[in-house]
Specification:
There is one protein chain. The chain is of the alpha/beta class. It contains 13 helices and 9 strands. It is globular and about 75 Å long. The N and C termini lie far apart (42 Å). The chain binds pyridoxal-5'-phosphate.
Length: 322
């Protein structure tokens, strides 16, 4: 799903969608259905054993939602993505997926309010500890902040609301020295301005409610997986332990890493958190986000141009320090 030879603007309108698989429809169809015909018992068997990838029930996956997932993965250069019902679901599911069962998350103090509140009030009640560095510009604070139970560093590439920036590559290096992933909330930047995976991040999360959707009419979230992190390094048994949903033909349970080394993270979010916590994105909402993504470059470029004008105006005023 890499961008290949196609430009950003081609991928934003075409990525993840093959009209030949959808009656040659030019616009991505809305598959407004809760479930799908399973066919005969042999096909059900193949679906359950992951020998055939097909749709079963929209809480697990849906063709319209899948186009959005593949398009965002392509725009970010990821190996896969999973769309969920909100940005908060994307943040929570991504962090639970690494830190469940007593892990800790190391983060900054420059966070979206909902994320900050959930870190303070909700994550600890689920047994997930949160540590925050005081000064995110001091990369050594990240190094010193890592504890034996730390399972990820989580940052916002451009923080909401203060728009603080970070030395992402050096923070990624600290994470990787410690065998843990860097998870980046890239909501403000969008893949148009910044691709965290190209600067050391392993997982990217989005509130698609904001610039990706762009029209203020839909709540949605996306988690993108880079595909390069080694989940088998001993710190993440949830990826190497046999899982009851991953049985082979003989009934033997396999692990997420045995099923796929390319996208074990998003597959695990899907089969644990999306399936059981259930913050599913509706096909119609996925369609609305896809419509928004088609004009992502034009809208964000206009915002950048307007911002530059405002900066130049303010700089021309003696009262404002540059
Ligand atoms: C809005 C926002 C979220 C939460 O997204 P919702 O879609 O409102 O749930 C998370 N992170 C950032 C940076 C945001 O701006």
């Amino acid at each position: 799903m890499a961008n290949g030879d196609y430009s950003f603007d081609t991928v934003k309108v075409r990525g993840g969608y093959d009209p030949k698989a959808h009656n040659l429809a030019v616009s991505v169809p809305i598959y407004q259905t809760a479930s799908f015909e399973l066919g005969d018992t042999e096909r059900v068997e193949r679906l359950l054993r992951f020998k055939e990838l097909g749709f079963v029930y929209t809480r697990l996956g849906n063709p319209t939602v899948q186009v959005l997932e593949e398009r965002i993965a392509a725009l970010d250069g990821g190996s896969a993505a999973i769309a969920v019902g909100s940005g908060m679901a994307a943040v929570t599911y991504a962090l639970f997926n690494v830190a469940e069962g007593g892990g800790r998350i190391l983060t900054t103090r420059n966070l979206y309010g909902g994320t900050e509140d959930s870190f303070k009030k909700l994550f600890p009640t689920f047994g997930i500890g949160i540590d925050q560095v005081d000064n995110a510009d001091d990369v050594d604070q990240f190094r010193r902040g890592i504890k034996p139970e730390t399972r990820a560093i989580f940052v916002e590439s451009i923080s909401n609301p203060n728009a603080t920036l970070l030395d992402l590559e050096r923070i990624a290096a600290v994470a990787h020295e410690n065998g843990i992933p860097l998870i980046v909330d890239n909501t403000f930047a969008t893949p148009y301005l910044f691709n965290p995976l190209k600067h050391g991040a392993d997982i990217v999360v989005y509130s698609a409610t904001k610039a990706l959707g762009g029209h203020g009419n839909t709540i949605a979230g996306v988690i993108v997986e880079g595909g390069a992190f080694d989940w088998g390094n001993g710190k993440f048994p949830q990826f190497t332990k046999p899982h009851y949903l991953l049985r082979d033909d003989t009934g033997v349970e396999r692990s997420f890493l045995e099923i796929t080394s390319e996208f074990p993270f998003t597959l695990r979010v899907r089969l644990n958190y999306l399936v059981y916590f259930g913050a599913v994105l509706s096909p119609f909402d996925a369609y609305l986000i896809l419509q928004g993504v088609e004009t992502l470059s034009e809208r964000v470029q206009k915002q950048v141009t307007n911002t530059e004008k405002i900066i130049r105006y303010l700089e021309s005023k003696g009262e404002v320090a540059g």
